[in-house]
Amino acid sequence: MKTETINDNPVPTQGVTDNTVHFQYQLPLRGESLNPMIDAATPLLGMVMRLKDMGEQPLPDQLYQQVVTDIQAIEQLLQTKGYEPGAIISFRYTLCTFIDETALGHGWNSKNEWLQQSLLVRFHNETWGGEKVFQLLDRLMGEPQRYQHLLEFIYLCFCLGYRGRYKVASQKSDDFERLFRRLHQQLHALRGEAPPIILHNNANERNDRYRLGKRLTIKHLFWSG
Hints:
The chain has a single domain (18-224), classed as Serine Threonine Protein Phosphatase 5, Tetratricopeptide repeat. It is 52% helix and 0% strand.
């Protein structure tokens, strides 16, 4: 499996047929990382990064349901990996909150289903997770070895721009920075000089559905903090 680099082709937003939409937004779950949570979430994280730049351009109507389907598939995949039910729920909660924050914070199409029902409402019957994610994080950091993969996933979401309660409280940016550094140090101690975790794509899929826009490794994350 070959690691891919940045793809500068824009996400198609006009003249898209139903078949094209299905092809462009269908998510494969594959990879060879040291962290199955990050590995499984890679396509959805790539979607977030690619669509952040779309501004108010309309999204395909099918995208919301496709993301719902993919989250369900990820959940089933993580169950086969032996993760605790509580860890999977916390992972899903964080992922939904991160995607919702991006979807609702970048002026995406007012007709988009995200404005009618967020992912957090769909999966957890809650309207805003910006506070609870950090409450979860506080508890998880109390058992870093047990929840290492989940903590690494949350750390990655921070690196990709998730801010939650700190997004609406700019005066607390110093508080977020301190939390970020503390998490960084905790995970750095756990991961050490382990081989890198790579967010990548299948080399055979050349028509490039959304993807994370660069080669990203745990080493890049932890040694740059």
